[in-house]
Amino acid sequence: MKIAIIGAGIGGLTAAYQLKGEVVVFEKSRGFGGRAATRWYERPGGRIYVDHGAQYLKTENEIMRRLMLQELSTADLSDIGRPVWTFDADHVIREGDPEHNAAPKWSYRHGVSTLGKLLADSGHFEVRLRTRVGKLQLRAEGNYALYDTENALLGEYAQVLIAIPSGQAAELIAASELPQTEKIALQAALQAATYRRCLSITLGYERAVAPRPFYALLNSDKRDPLAWLGYEHAKIGHVLPGQSVLVAQMGESYSLDHWETPNEALVNEVAAHVSKLLGERLTDFDWADVQRWRYSQPNTLAEPSQLNGVLRGLWFVGDYLIGGRVHLAAESGARVAAAIREAWLNG
Ligand SMILES: Cc1cc2nc3c(=O)[nH]c(=O)nc-3n(C[C@H](O)[C@H](O)[C@H](O)COP(=O)(O)OP(=O)(O)OC[C@H]3O[C@@H](n4cnc5c(N)ncnc54)[C@H](O)[C@@H]3O)c2cc1C
Q: Is 249 in the pocket of ligand 1 (CB under 6 A)?
């Protein structure tokens, strides 16, 4: 049975890993892992790795424990160890939730995107990078033909898993040739899910910033422009010795209001805000970067039963079906893989 998976995020890759066999994953970008994303920078003295989407990985569910701790290499895996503390809009910093902090917070030496690479390197399936799927066409015999955005045929598949954020999935369904009633039902179900935007700002220092007892700060009352501040140099192997990198992820309304702000103005404003929060001069960064996440994490979810099962052989995977976390996206992929296997066993 030929299976196509659209999207090499952790949801799509987990499904591919579980299904094995004649599986092809199509990915529009140059890399694996989707929003479990790492960017690297060549700096004097060596390379720096920055997780600029998901900040760390959790092994809170069975599928992530099995993948990360048992089946894939653990050679470059490390627990950040230090806790997450909180701050409020008045900039009062408090120790975080001890229960939450007791659980390991994982990253890899070369960033969280390593999980995607390890899954893709497993040899269980094929991946075609730099291939954006633009259209599906349901053929008379029940297979799906996949086309890229230039309308070139990518192949015919008995099962197709759409493992991309709901907004992009809705665009793909709109462009596809599918029975009209089901197409409208799928579009309506996808529109129920909404995502928030997030501006993720990286600030690099060729010096050590003040040591802190925490790895990151989380805005507890959601009233501050800053949602999250991570100390990337707390992760083993990410930052050169004696240097520092801060990752500032901005809240929803700040991100919306500043979406079009030019990078230079944005990084200066965010560095000034972080300086104020910490009572430390951090406006003298040596380098900076900005990532604009149109789909960062879902605010509202879609109902899986209104998507999976609507058209035979067409499946949906992703965090918008289950919750905006990497381990939940993996679980969504594992659930669909199990459903496909069960349907196949039952003929
Ligand atoms: C700023 C930010 C902070 C976050 N913080 C955390 C955190 O600390 N902890 C945590 O667990 N989670 C966090 N998350 C959420 C987590 O990253 C996501 O929930 C999870 O990675 C989603 O995985 P996915 O497989 O569903 O989708 P994605 O990772 O979005 O994967 C979809 C893939 O499909 C590709 N694609 C899209 N359209 C097409 C197409 N037409 N053809 C081919 N390929 C296509 C994309 O390029 C992408 O690689 C964060 C996310 C962001 C952005």
A: yes
CA of 195 to the centre of ligand 1 (A): 11
CA of 168 to the centre of ligand 1 (A): 12
CA–CA separation, 28 and 84 (whole Å):
34
Whether the predicted model's global pTM rises above the 0.85 cut:
yes
Residue ranges, comma separated, of all CATH 3.90.660.10 domains in the chain are: 40-110+195-298
Each residue's pLDDT tens digit, 88-129 = 999 999 999 999 999 999 999 999 999 999 999 999 999 999
Domain 40-110+195-298 is found in CATH 3.90.1140.10: no
Assess whether the C-beta atom of 163 lies below 6 angstroms from ligand 1.
Answer: yes
CA distance 75 to 109: 9
Tokens of 17: 């890993």
- State the span(s) of the chain assigned CATH 3.50.50.60: 1-36+113-193+301-347
- Helix, strand, or coil (residue 307): coil
